[in-house]
Design goal:
The structure holds two protein chains of two kinds.
Chain A lengths: L8 H9 L5 H19 L2 E4 L1 H16 L11 E5 L27 H8 L3 E6 L19 E2 L2 E5 L5 H8 L5 E6 L5 H7 L2 E4 L19 E6 L2 H11 L17 H4 L9 E4 L9 H14 L4 E2 L4 H19 L1 H6 L6 H10 L4 H21 L5 E5 L12 E4 L2 E4 H4 L5 H5 L4 E6 L8 E7 L4 H13 L13
Chain B lengths: L2 H7 L5 H11 L8 H21 L2 H5 L18
Helix pairs in contact in B: 1-3
The chains are: A alpha/beta, B mainly alpha.
Chain lengths: 467, 79
């Protein structure tokens, strides 16, 4: 038996299933890593050691009986603290939710991972009520970037990004309404999958903006991402937007890479020449894949604007009572955006829904001729904590909404996207690139991501400070 | 063009407009938040302006008035 913390999902599960590593040893190693590093990183908001060790011993018992505990045997994972965990209050990054009763049962996706042998070790930080791209939180402090503790982890799945980026766990569940899986994946240097809207059930999670909310995994390799995604799929009637779609077997298709696929670079709105890091990252991916076609993607700018307004209006409506009765208990950065959203005219919201529909029609027409699009993920690598502005077209704009500048158009219409991490020459920080496919084709995103990983273009590194 | 986003984007005092909107919506805006809320509303107005300038209205009206996601919600909620 040996310390298993830096190992990936495949390595841990294989060793546990072969009886070479006890699940309890895997979990103990993980818990020790969390204890060593969480004081610095501030990513875990609860550590469920007793539950995790109990679950791990059950996995070991199955092994001892000659039974198969599942493809994720003994794999530790964390969840964004908007997922219900039995016995734990679902904070959703807020102070206000502290007064709520603990959840009575686990979220469906937690049950699915544990049914496959994985072991939940804790809940992790997030921006308040998921209205965040930075990882900062006035109630619980900033979740810190594993590559530079003075920088942002990205949000709102900040703890998911940091806990996987620092290799404290090989897998985390996050949520993505406008980019909240992809932005922390980009800033923390890991892989993140935002599946098609409706693919994974959100049952037992605290909503942000229901018509835009997605849930999905973050991991340290494409193979690990695909394996966990395959275990997560399936219909659940508890989420009214969950599709009754046949599960994809994405892991089995990874070896195909980009062979036979029609690839293009997203241009127009996604032209990132004013952001040198993002531009260099997209250039490198496109060069590696031999992409020579750039498509303007008409409607993306308007699609992003629509997502901005819909998010603002719907999320403010969700929190209306809390804004009226406990406005002083909100994080000021989210409070003021929610308050503004509660004042939006109905005509803006309706127009946004019309434009969103139109944007979906426009992109579906593009996917008649293309299988996968490559686009920037974040405009820059991790900003310093406390940064407030981002320069766009020569004008200083608020950083908080604009870190999702390039992620928001795709989630607005529910497309599957895999964020892949790159390390540019001479850079001490990673940055992500989006691999985008048509609805329900997560397999294509993951195939292209796998090719980039095999080529050494997309890589997940291990920060030595966190080992 | 929607009159409200034009008003928000035009030069001049916007505070009275924001106060009136808040009053009509039954929201009390804390004094410390008024400047930030107004700034966020101006950003929203810029987004709205982009949407209203985007396409001829008739063209958009041919699309569904309300977005239909790939999966149509039926009933219930996630919690």
């Amino acid at each position: 038996m040996h310390a298993a913390a830096p190992a990936g999902i495949h390595a841990i599960a294989s060793a546990v299933r072969r009886g070479e590593l006890a699940a309890t040893a895997s979990i103990n190693s993980c818990l020790q890593g969390i204890a060593r590093n969480n004081g610095t990183l501030n990513c875990f908001t609860s550590v469920l050691a007793e539950r995790a060790l109990q679950r791990a011993s059950e996995v070991d018992s199955l092994i001892a009986q000659g039974k198969d505990p599942g493809p994720l045997a003994g794999v530790p994972f964390s969840v964004k603290n908007l997922f219900d965990v039995a016995g734990v209050t679902t904070l959703a990054g807020s102070l206000i939710n502290q007064a709520n009763l603990p959840a009575s049962t686990d979220a469906v996706l937690i049950k699915r991972l544990e049914a496959a042998g994985a072991v939940l070790v804790g809940t992790v930080a997030m921006g308040e009520y998921a209205y965040d791209f930075t990882g900062e939180n006035s109630h619980y402090g900033a979740c810190r970037n594993p590559w530079d503790n003075g920088r942002m982890s990205g949000g709102s799945s900040s703890g998911s990004g940091t806990s996987v980026g620092a290799a404290l766990v090989p897998l985390s569940l996050g949520s993505d309404t406008n980019g909240s899986i992809r932005v922390p994946a980009s800033l923390c240097g890991i892989f993140g999958l935002k599946p098609t809207y409706g693919r994974l059930p959100r049952t037992g999670s605290f909503p942000f903006c229901e018509s835009l909310d997605h849930v999905g995994p973050l991991a340290r390799s494409v193979g690990d991402l695909a394996l966990s995604f395959d275990c997560l799929q399936g219909f659940d009637g508890g989420d009214h937007a969950c599709a009754d779609m046949p599960p994809l077997r994405t892991l089995d298709a990874l070896h195909k890479g980009s062979s036979g696929l029609r690839l293009a670079r997203a241009g127009g709105y996604f032209d990132c020449s004013q952001f040198p890091e993002a531009q260099a990252a997209v250039d490198r991916v496109c060069d590696s894949l031999g992409i020579t076609t750039t498509l303007p993607l008409q409607g993306a700018s308007e699609g992003r604007a629509a997502a901005y307004l819909i998010t603002n209006a719907e999320s403010s409506a969700l929190h209306r009572e809390r804004l009226q009765t406990r406005v002083g208990d909100f994080d000021p950065d989210t409070r003021d955006r929610f308050l503004a959203g509660s004042l939006l005219p109905a005509t803006w919201y309706i127009r946004a829904q019309q434009v969103r529909r139109r944007w979906l029609q426009q992109i579906l027409a593009v996917f008649a001729d293309v299988d996968v699009l490559i686009a920037p993920c974040t405009p820059c690598s991790a900003p310093l904590l406390g940064s407030k502005t981002l320069t766009i077209n020569g004008v200083d704009r608020p950083l908080r909404p604009n870190l999702g500048l390039f992620t928001q158009p795709f989630s607005a219409i529910g497309l599957p996207v895999c964020s892949v991490p790159l390390w540019l020459t001479g850079s001490a920080l990673p940055i992500g690139v989006q691999v985008v496919a048509a609805p329900w084709r997560e397999d294509l995103c993951l195939r292209v991501a796998q090719q980039l990983e095999q080529q050494g273009v997309a890589t997940c590194r291990l920060p030595t400070s966190c080992v | 063009m929607n009159a409200l986003h034009s008003a928000l984007l035009a030069p001049g005092d916007k505070q009275a407009l924001v106060d009136a909107l808040a009053l009509s919506a039954g929201m009390a805006i804390p004094a410390a938040s008024k400047v930030a809320v107004t700034a966020h509303l101006i950003v929203a107005a810029e987004m709205a302006q982009l949407l209203f300038a985007a396409e001829p209205a008739a063209d958009l009206a041919a699309s569904a008035a309300v977005f239909i996601p790939p999966v149509m919600p039926t009933a219930g909620s996630v919690r």
